[in-house]
Amino acid sequence: MLRYDILKRRPEALRALTGLSREEFEELCKRFLPVWEEAERKRLSRPDRQRAMGAGRAYKLDLVTYLLMTMMWVRLYLSTAALAALFGVDKATVSRNGRRILAVLRQVTEGEMEWPDPPSRGKDLPEMLTTCPDLFAILDGTEQPIQRPADPERQRVFYSGKKKRHTVKNGLVVNEEGLIRAVTPSTPGSVHDLRHFRESGVLRRIPQEVGVIGDAGFDGLHKDLPLHSVATPHKARRNHPLTADQKLMNRELSRVRIVIEHVLAQIKQFRALSERFRHSLEIHDAIFILVAAIVNRRTQERLALEKA
């Protein structure tokens, strides 16, 4: 049976199974444990609970191993039956504890992706770049296949005309260095990218000092951000092909936008966000925020090493 005290001595296996290095896993565990303990205290002391706090059957596995099991599920997207066999527990135990751990992990990670405070007046340029380094806010959406809903109305809502299948959609906002500044909630795949960002409220949080860049799907974004500098690719129209200058500008925008494609590629390394999703949107939100926070911390560490 798998246990963390075994896997920590094999860092390559740990990273292959969870997507995290030993240092990353232990840092996540350090932040997770106090939030879990507080959540458990509230759950066990609720007024309608009949048992006294501390009563009931003890966990078969230690908490760190349950966290390991959850991260393996996110990284490999195994079935509950497979995880139950690997860890020597029941399928119900995997499902029940996985949902609770994901809820706590969401609390731990969802506040990590925020815009830095805008610079105050009177600061010189070097100080402004230190306190508010972002030059651009790069927007993009991503869709993930889901199981076809049984309800005809839900089939219609979740059907993506772009992907020609049923999907769930999320959006990201990153700066020019690949730091994630915002994540949008999961929505049905039929929602257009621009509408998805409008309804998420993310656009209102972008500082006015930051330029905004989107792909061709964000045509008309300048109407939502009249006080921002907004750039989207030029589109060729009937009888109006792109000029040489417009093609050159599109190439320059693509060079900037490639950053967010790299971030999305890192996120999709976790199979719970790349394979056909089999669970509820609420769980999808928690997984997307968790993985985005993991990728963001890696980017922060890389940038810190480059600037050292």
Count of discrete alpha- or pi-helical segments spanning 4 or more residues: 12
Main beta-sheet annotation: 7 strands, mixed
Mean pLDDT: 89
Shape: globular
What pattern of helices and strands is seen along the backbone?
Answer: HHHHHHHEHEEEEHEHEHH
Helix content: 40-55%
Q: N- to C-terminal separation?
A: 42 Å
Secondary structural class? alpha/beta
Radius of gyration equals 22 Å
**Beta content:** 5-15%
The number of strands is 7
Unreliable spans are: none
Descriptive account of the structure:
By secondary structure, the chain is α/β, with parallel strands linked by helices. The chain contains twelve helices and seven strands. It has helices at 4-7, 11-18, 22-44, 63-76, 80-87, 91-109, 125-131, 152-158, 193-200, 221-224, 244-267, 281-307, and strands spanning 136-145, 159-160, 165-174, 180-183, 187-188, 211-213, 230-231. Strands 1, 2, 3, 4, 5, 6 and 7 form a seven-stranded mixed sheet that branches. Strand 3 and strand 4 (180-183) form a beta hairpin. Helix 3 (22-44) crosses helix 6 and helix 4 (63-76) packs across helix 6 (91-109). The two termini are 42 Å apart. The mean pLDDT is 89.
